[in-house]
Amino acid sequence: MLTLANVDVVYGGVIQVLRAANLEVREGQMVVLLGANGAGKTTTLKAISGLLVAEHGEVTDGRITFAGRDITHADPAATVKAGLVQVLEGRKVLEHLTVRQNLLVGAHLRPDRAAVRADLDRVFRYFPALPELLDRTAGYLSGGEMQMLLIGRALMARPRLLLLDEPSMGLAPMLAQQLFDTISRINRDEGLTVLMVEQNARAAIAHCDYGYIMEGGRVVLHGSRDQLEGNQDVQEFYLGMGHGTERPSYREVKHYRRRKRWLG
Amino acid sequence: MRPTGIWFESYAAEARVLETLRARLWLLALLAALVLLPAVAGPWLLGEFTNLFITLVAVYGLYVTVGMAGQINIAQSAFVGVGAFTAAKLSGMGVPIWATIPAGALAAGCISIVFALPAWRVKGFYLALTTLAAQVMFPIVILALPMSWLGGLVGMPVMPPTLFGLNLGTPTGLYFLGLFVAALATWTAFNLPRSRIGRAFRAVHDNDSAASVMGIQVTRIKIEAFFAGALYAGVAGAVLAYFLQFVTVSSFTLFTSVWYLGMLIVGGLHSPVGPILGVVFVTLLQEGLHKFANAMLQADGGLGGGTVFALSSVVLALCILIALIFEPRGLAHLWHTGMKAFRLWPFPRN
Q: Second label for B6, Cα 20 to 30 Å away, from A27, A58, A105, A190?
């Protein structure tokens, strides 16, 4: 459904962030993108949704295709029209608008008002806390409520592929767990394809069908959930397992990084 | 927060501007009072009200561009001028009033697009500067054009308006014309935030990258916001032309533009009630001080006319400062909290 083939992204004409990144998302899958800070995860999402221009970034090489169409240089409004909706990092609600208005803005490109109203109910099925908050100003919601609103708003656009950028950021572990459960329920029940960037690796891997791990602007490892959970490197570096109770010493890690060249 | 006992059973009821029967009755009472006013008021008071209505329409335009879409526009007075000159020129050619007002609106809208185009590349203060250019260019262009086109330095007389054989040129006629356009502007301004394009304006205002991931074409929406705001300005200008009976460039200055912005900010940027409160508050203040200054001059307290009028400007500025210090969100915020307290009485508002 979505393919990135050898995509290079350069910011401001000098800083190369993505180096020949390859990625594939199949219809109906829930795919996670993991990696350390600065690995290029958010840049990958922005390259897909066309938001790089706002930050003086540019796809200099490679192709991004979505549902058979080349969207490498498409503008954000066009990608949304194609069915690709992104939830930005850092809870970018429209803070002066009410929750209801936020949700309706999500349906900006849809002319059918009756269907939009029906979709409000559909969103409330996944986020039962939202109807209570409809007339509240979005800027005053709590972090968890904002995240529900953002995902609800994205659903209002009836996307075919949902891009989520760190939905669990700043949430209490239990809230994050609930959020992941809801996202996978939406993925399952609606058949909505999801590509999610996460730091919370253990929970993210547990919920995904397939995962990619990025490092230094490249995809260095990928595999199905079982493969990732069984992979020793993933266990050591992202899940913090494999050392028993003792923490690894710096020398060991340095040595390890020399052995595993792909870690950059 | 609504008082107990008021609930809604349908989506439409919940989305209404006037939620309760009582609110609708209040509005009817206000409209009835305004319609009956000419029966009791003299021509001077009617003139003041007409002027207030026209200003309100212009400020509603700013509410759309600045308050809703967040694009600073310091050339509203120039756009009012475009509407006024268009109406004056057309009325001189014998075009009836029902055509000159929309034509004035459209002319102002089209010219505003030219100055909104930089929104494609720049935003914030830089965009505000391009609108300043519109304000500066307006008199230069009018003066540079041949006298026979738009009257140049002298200005142009405006034919008194008639509609279906009725003479609208009387104070009462102009009052009703002003009331009609002001009511129309108010109605559209209250409903715009509930519409798709209104929500897009406010989304662009709040966060343009978040708006663009919802499929909103940010640049287009910004230009549309300027266009919509200038439409209001054009209507205000056309009616103002009939009201003044004569248009010259000196009526449409940067000073007036700043006053329009000032009224909007004092009234409140984010609520459609804001422009009404701002325009009424500032106009009352201006007129009151004017009267007071005149009385001072009559009494001859030993101050010269220059000093008295300078002092009245200082007092006006002080009043606005005080209003902003104590209510930075504008009088509209005061209005909304007051209304809430009134509705929930005797319970404290939360």
A: A105
Q: Is B12 contained in some domain?
A: no
Predicted local distance difference test score (pLDDT) of residue A260: 56
- Domain span including residue A109: 2-230
Mutating which of A96, A110, A136 best tests the B interface, going by the most B Cβ atoms within 10 A?
A: A96
Residue of B102, B106, B79, B94 whose CA lies nearest to B161: B94
Q: Which residues of A touch B (CB under 8 A)?
A: 49, 51, 54, 75-77, 80-81, 85-88, 92-97, 101, 104-106, 108-109, 117, 153, 157
Percent with pLDDT over 90 in chain A: 61
The two tokens of residue A166 are 């760190």
| Total domains present in chain A | 1
Cβ-based burial of A11 (10 A; exposed 0-12, middle 13-18, buried ≥19):
middle
Nearest chain B CA: its distance from A147 CA (Å):
13
CB–CB contact A108 B214 (8 Å): yes
Count of structural domains, chain B: 1
Are the beta carbons of A96 and B206 separated by less than 8 Å?
yes
Is residue A121 situated within a structural domain? yes
At A17, give phi and psi (nearest 5°): -105, -45
Confidence of residue A215 (pLDDT cuts 50, 70, 90): confident
Q: How high does pLDDT run on average in chain A?
A: 88
Q: Report how far residue B58's alpha carbon sits from residue B260's, in angstroms, rounded to the nearest whole number.
A: 7
Looking at the domain assignment, is residue A50 inside a domain?
yes
Instruction: Tell me the C-alpha distance between B183 and B163, whole Å.
Output: 18
Contact indicator for B77, B254 with CB cutoff of 8 Å: yes
Question: With 70 as the cut, is the pLDDT of residue A10 above it?
Answer: yes
Residue A20 lies in a domain: yes
B34 within a domain of the structure (yes/no): no
Nearest to A181 by CA among A207, A144, A146, A213: A207
Domain assignment present for residue B65? The answer is yes
CB contact under 8 A, A108 and B199: yes
pLDDT score at B85: 95
The yes-or-no verdict on residue B4 having pLDDT over 80 is no
Euclidean distance between CA atoms B107 and B222, whole angstroms:
18
Q: Which domain holds residue B155?
A: 41-272
Q: What is the CATH number of the domain that holds A8?
A: 3.40.50.300
The winner for highest mean pLDDT among A143-147, B106-110, B193-197 is: B106-110
To the nearest whole Å, the CA of B115 is away from the closest chain A CA by 22
In a domain, A44, yes or no: yes
A96:B210 CB<8 A: no
Kindly report, residue by residue over B95-145, the tens digit of the pLDDT: 999 999 999 999 999 999 999 998 888 888 888 888 999 999 999 999 999
> What stretches of chain B adopt beta strand conformation (E)?
156-157, 162-163, 166-167, 246-247
Q: What per-residue confidence (pLDDT) applies to B302?
A: 66
Alpha helices in chain A (DSSP H): 41-49, 76-82, 99-106, 113-126, 130-133, 143-156, 173-190, 201-207, 225-230, 232-237, 250-259
Is the pLDDT assigned to residue A250 strictly greater than 70? Answer: no
